[in-house]
Amino acid sequence: MGYKDYKIGNIVNVTVTGIQPYGVFATLDEETQGLIHISEVKHGYVENLKELFEIGEEIEAMILDIDEFDGRISLSLRTLQKAKYHPFSNQNKNPRYGKQTGIGFETLEEKLPLWIEVALNRIEEKHEK
Q: Any idea where the S1 motif domain is (predicted)?
């Protein structure tokens, strides 16, 4: 098999072959190597990949990308995990979101004459100098 036999989105079993501070190298088969970047290991912060993986360990990963130039595959474990929280889940808990304040363009309309007057005064002061 080779990288052409795989498709983006496939879930594959891989074997860990190397661990670096930036990611985990794994083989999909005898000819095909992939990388799980540290940001694709899990949701949240990962301090030390060597504490999470061992060389020779078999894991399940999803194919994120296939580089046809060099045949390398980008893998992810994070996409197979459920997120602990949704990034926008706190919006409803914050009183600023979704609350009607009654303030709209009327406030701008009230302030506009004052702003025009201030701007005209500044222009006049510059011309007098």
A: 9-78
State what percent of residues in the chain have pLDDT above 90: 47
Please report, for the domain that includes residue 40, its CATH number: 2.40.50.140
Confidence (pLDDT) at 11: 94
- Structure-token pair, residue 74: 């980008």
Tell me the pLDDT tens digit for each residue of 74-91.
Answer: 999 999 988 766 656 555
Residue 95 per-residue DSSP state:
T
3-state secondary structure of 118: helix
Please state the length of the chain. 129
How high is the pLDDT of residue 128? 79
Residue 35, φ and ψ in degrees, nearest 5: -130, 135
Q: Provide the domain limits for residue 11.
A: 3-80
**Residues contacting residue 11 through CB under 8 Å, at least 6 positions apart:** 60, 61, 62, 63, 80
Domain assignment of residue 19, yes or no = yes
